Amino acid sequence: MNPVASHDQAAPGPEASVLIIGAGLAGFSVARQLRSLGHTGGVRIVDPEGLPYDRPPLSKAYLLGHTDQAGLLLADAAWCREHEVEILTGTVATVRPGAGEAVLADGTALAADVLVLATGGTARKLSIPGGDLDTVLELRHRADADRLRTVLRPGTRLAIIGAGLIGAETASAARELGAVVVLIDPMDPPLVPAVGPELARRLHAMHTEKGITVVTGIPETITRDGEHHRIALASGEQITADAVLVGVGITPNTALAESAGLEVDGGIIVDERQRTSHRRVYAVGDCARTRTTGGVLKRRAEHWENAMNSGHQAASAIIGGDAPAPRADWFWSDRHGVHVEGVGSLTAPGTTVIREADGVPVMAFRVDGEGYLLGCAAVDGGLAVKAARRIIDRRIRVDPAQLADPAVNLKKLAR
């Protein structure tokens, strides 16, 4: 295993040519931030799907038909021309860091001073008999959403395996489209690490309230008989569905990094500036895993803001700029007409404080023994979460009694 490079050499600089492999949010954020910071070197993005587009709407607005392909774009062709970001449609087969080049599947070699791996992840398949059936759907790319949308019509029986963010969002959208939905997950409730048990229970109960059948169980096999699928659970229960969607996370795409000899361990290992074990290569987004200056190997982060922030970190490191100030991790999700946000950690050592409205939990906080806020999650409380993030980032001590009091405006505590 190669250690992450010390990177005591000079940054590539504002005139270096940069080739970004992957046109998701992370890869696009590198390009956009480079130009924002005054980078004058060539910037190219190569991706099988061409222009960069946003993926969170795939399970929501796009699946429901509220936005189209143009509405998904992070940047259109005119923006790319204006900012001199070249978009290449193709698949990278090999990267050669020593030579400073990437080779496409058709044999074309692309040279660059800096290579940025923004390769994302692949939807994880179930390692059970039938988990690899070509009719078992996933939702990772625009084409996946297009395929799912063709089978969702009133009365379609859809079984979703995995009730995390993607599964819950898709269940909500499918129900709105008239599908008969069964949502299967081994945890009851899911999302406890993200939002705490109280909010997780409230959010999970919304599925039943909206007419979705919720099943706690572990699938053992999936079989197909003509147009129908049968899911056998470990409990012996059998679920019949016209369509099956699996949403159980992703596997980071590290093959290019591994073949190039970069350090990989559950993701492409990077330092806190997104630099890999080769001085010429950076990695951002879902595929990257950070090792801190103290040697701690952090968990990979798969949320939207990490993709954007890691892109910004890489861009500033490439031009030799100062690192953006770190902020507490933040995520959001939508289901059944409510908006969920979370910041920081609800699982860090400490005490949980619940804020209620009319006896219903609306916010959860995690506070350590010294009175510092570690994490917060809320249902339809975006402004409060924004204030909580400031409290976390600024290391402001808080009174748990005030956090629990719905009459206390968090904005005042953040000052």
Protein described:
The chain is α/β, with parallel strands linked by helices and 415 residues long. It folds into 3 domains: 18-122 and 250-319, 3-Layer(bba) Sandwich (FAD/NAD(P)-binding domain); 136-246, FAD/NAD(P)-binding domain; 337-413, 2-Layer Sandwich (Enolase-like, domain 1). 26% of the residues lie in helices and 28% in strands. It is built from 13 helices and 25 strands. The strands form 7 sheets. A 5-stranded parallel β-sheet has the order 3-2-1-7-19. Strands 9-16-10-11-12 form a 5-stranded parallel β-sheet, covered by helices on one side. The longest helix is centred in the C-terminal third of the chain and has 16 residues, at 304-319. The chain is globular. It starts with 17 loop residues before the first strand and ends with a helix. The mean pLDDT is 95.
